[in-house]
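Weekend entry, working from home. Most of the wet-lab plans are on hold until the incubator is repaired, so I used the time to fold the two sequences that have been sitting in the queue since the last round of cloning. Logging both here for the record. First:
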Amino acid sequence: MKKLLLVGLLLLANAVSADHYTPETFEDATKLPQDKVLVLITEISNCPYCSQIKEQFLGPLSLAPKFGPYITIASINLESSEKLIGFDGKAITQDQWAQKMGVDFSPTVLVLDPKTGKRLADDLVGLVTPDFYGFYLEQNINRAKQSLGID
């Protein structure tokens, strides 16, 4: 049974990868579900590492029963002057928001409180260790879920 479940999860992960998983654009912090951890990827256009993180890690996590129901995955573009509504309810451009958060490298994955925008775990900057990236990301999400009392 465990082998069948593992095969099913691998097929599901491959299906998500084949679809080129694209998270929603972070547009309005005031409309985020308050009962889910915000997992936010900051990226630039044509970033192969960003694509790899989205396809190999974020897409499968969005469908995993242990994580999917408890997270909102979104993205912003570090080069974009598109406006978003921040956690303070004020309009700001995506690039300005990233600067305000101290994010200047692509990709960076932040795990945030959906109410306040407070970091709930260390940022994952770049894709230095792909073999352990999923483990670190899952650890960060679990830490955030625990911090917010989400289960």
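Second, folded right after the first finished:
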Amino acid sequence: SINRPRIFIAGPLNPHKGGGAIEYLRNCSRMIEAARDLIKAGYAPFCPAVDAAYFIGGMYDETPTADEIKSYSASWVGACAAILLMPGWEKSGGALAEMEIAGRLNIPVFKNAGDLYRYFNQPE
């Protein structure tokens, strides 16, 4: 179906407290796993973890800046039917900003996939 509900996945990507590349990759992996689950369950996720691909290759001046990526990513919140939070979202400045946008637009925010699935399977 082309009418899959769009879900914005929000959560930490950048490491906290010296977690470095390993923490970043774990955060990406967790977010990508959530996106795979959402796709299989009939949703259309927006997964910021794949933004890493935009930093690979190209010359320095062709690579988007962190601010450009944050702005591009946040612009997708309003196109989504809901936000799904990843563990550790409380420490993510990006996730908190995305939740604030969702609040202004009355977009529901879910802390786990089970609640999100129940919300979308409610009778109209």
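Plan for Monday: verify the second prediction. The chain is about 40% helix and 10% strand.
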